[in-house]
Write a structure and sequence with these properties.
The protein is an alpha+beta fold and 205 residues long. It has helices at residues 6-15, 21-26, 31-42, 47-53, 55-66, 68-76, 82-89, 91-116, 162-177, 197-204, and strands at residues 122-128, 134-141, 150-156, 183-189. It folds into two domains: 6-78, no CATH class; 98-204, no CATH class. It has a four-stranded mixed sheet with strand order 1-2-3-4. Helix 9 (162-177) links the parallel strand 3 (150-156) and strand 4 (183-189).
Length: 205
């Protein structure tokens, strides 16, 4: 392409719909995260379908939210070293760290709410429920053990896969363990849940 704009990039996308995920790589999105954003924008996880049916909107979204055009212009004219390759391949570690920070952010916000209500609480603990069963709680009010009245699970993920499955299992464990006098709450957030609607339904039920 001799220039970078909506029309040129959209034309490339319609000509190469199967490879459109490359645009996400330009802005630092994995295929998994691209799928989550596609579900949010166009109600589909297929970049091929988005490229064929909504190519201009797809390109505009990537530019508005992730600065696609500037990054394309910059990266096409760069000379990369071996060190650059190593940094890029180490990016998966940074992604994992960011995913963990997403969940921790929700925990911090829940703690702030508990503090604003002057509630006694314990973060990241276990509580004792029915028949002596124990279960995890990202926030326990007012305390751990049998004294716990409200157990809260905070689950925020920008990715999919085993971590979300583990989160659902943890919430179910809390619900199964609680007594009639205990309340189990789940707070979920993050793009990753877009691809796990069935799991969200399980949590709700």
């Amino acid at each position: 392409m001799d220039s970078i704009d909506v029309d040129r990039v959209a034309a490339w996308a319609i000509a190469h719909p199967e490879q459109t995920y490359v645009l996400a790589l330009v802005v630092g999105l994995s295929r998994e995260k691209l799928k989550n954003h596609l579900r949010n924008w166009f109600d589909t996880a297929s970049w091929r379908k988005a490229a064929l049916e909504q190519r201009a909107e797809l390109v505009e979204k990537l530019d508005e939210e992730f600065d696609l055009f500037r990054l394309l212009r910059t990266q096409r004219n760069c000379a990369y070293t071996f060190g650059d390759i190593l940094v890029a391949r180490a990016g998966t570690r940074a992604t994992a760290t960011t995913a963990g920070q997403s969940g921790r952010k929700i925990e911090d916000e829940l703690e702030a709410i508990a503090k604003s209500l002057n509630l006694p609480y314990v973060p990241r603990a276990r509580f004792v429920g029915r028949n002596g069963r124990t279960a995890p709680a990202d926030l326990a009010v007012p305390a751990t053990g049998r004294e716990c009245v409200i157990a809260v699970a905070a689950k925020g993920f920008d990715s999919t896969g085993s971590k979300l499955s583990d989160a659902v299992g943890e919430i179910e464990e809390m619900a199964d363990a609680r007594t009639g006098g205990q309340v189990a709450l789940a707070v979920v957030d993050g793009m990753g849940w877009k691809g796990r609607i069935a799991d969200l339904t399980r949590i709700r039920e």
